[in-house]
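Hi R.,

As promised on Friday, here is the backbone we talked about, encoded as structure tokens. Could you run it through your design pipeline when you get a chance and send me back a sequence?
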């Protein structure tokens, strides 16, 4: 794993909490590498607004603001939903098999999510679901943009997920609805379900109408 991905995962899954100081030397020690790739990773994370660097003083994980999260969810709806609507029908057997496997995976989670205390695994699976959907688009620029918005919203969701146990089963059901539409070739319905799913997630965080 690269220093960039290592640090980003720590931030998304709140091992490095908003406002905390990042010890460059400690991260290099954990990764058994020099400080140069860590420093380069931190510069990239600053560009992506995950950290704030004050030269010769400190590097801190940025705080999550409600206003910024509203903008992230808005961006996801404006880009992710039309992206889903414009997809294929899927004809490649491997792709159809991947969709079916993901559908079975989420069906198997229906009886588990309400009692599962491992929120990290759930958020990771949720993030993988959305990253898989946008990877179906053949435009790498849109994929890159949507991937970043998904990561930012998942970070916010992970901060509060311990208060949202009931929402977890609904997430699984909404994922299955989207996959049902994709497998049946109804991309318009898949886009509608995707929009509702994003709005429901935003509403569950309590920031929709603030």
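Update: got your reply. Pasting your designed sequence below so it's all in one thread:
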């Amino acid at each position: 794993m690269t220093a960039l991905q290592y640090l980003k995962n720590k931030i998304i899954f709140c091992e490095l909490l908003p406002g905390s100081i990042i010890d460059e030397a400690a991260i290099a020690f954990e990764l058994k590498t020099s400080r140069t790739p860590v420093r380069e990773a931190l510069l990239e994370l600053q560009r992506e607004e995950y950290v704030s660097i004050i030269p010769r003083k400190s590097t801190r994980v940025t705080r999550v603001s409600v206003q910024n999260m509203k903008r992230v969810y808005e961006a996801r709806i404006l880009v992710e939903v039309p992206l889903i609507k414009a997809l294929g029908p899927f004809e490649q057997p491997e792709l159809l098999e991947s969709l079916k496997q993901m559908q079975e995976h989420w069906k198997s989670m229906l009886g588990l999510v309400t009692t599962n205390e491992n929120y990290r695994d759930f958020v990771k699976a949720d993030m993988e679901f959305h990253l898989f959907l946008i990877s179906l688009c053949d435009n790498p620029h849109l994929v890159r943009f949507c991937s970043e918005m998904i990561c930012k919203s998942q970070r916010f969701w992970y901060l509060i997920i311990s208060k949202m146990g009931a929402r977890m089963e609904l997430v699984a059901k909404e994922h299955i609805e989207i996959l049902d539409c994709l497998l049946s070739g109804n991309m318009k319905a898949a886009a509608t379900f995707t929009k509702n799913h994003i709005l429901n997630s935003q509403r569950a965080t309590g920031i929709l109408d603030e």
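One thing I noticed while checking it: Residues 42 and 145 are 19 Å apart (CA to CA).

Thanks again,
M.
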